[in-house]
Amino acid sequence: MKCKKSSQIILLITGITMVSYGVIRGEAAVVLGKAIKLCLECVGIG
User: Fold this and answer.
1) Three-class DSSP category at 26
2) pLDDT given at position 14
C-alpha cells in the first residue's frame, strides 16, 4: 500500500511539472489554436 501511494505522489508531481513546463514554453496557446481549428473543421466552417 505504501509503494502504491508513493508512486502516485511521484506521478502527480511529474505531471504537474510537465504541465507547468508546457505553460511556460507557451504550448497552451498552440494547443488551443489547434483545438479551435479542429472544431471548426468538424462543424464544416473551416
Assistant:
1) coil
2) 98
C-alpha torsion angle, residues 9, 12, 18, 24 (rounded to 10) = -100
Domain that holds residue 22: 2-43
Alpha helices for the chain (secondary structure H)? 2-25, 27-43
User: Which distant-in-sequence residues (6+ apart) come within 8 Å of 40 by Cβ?
Assistant: 46
- If one counts the domains in the chain, the total is 1
**Residue range 1-46, pLDDT digits in tens:** 788 999 999 999 999 999 999 999 999 899 899 988 888 888 877 5
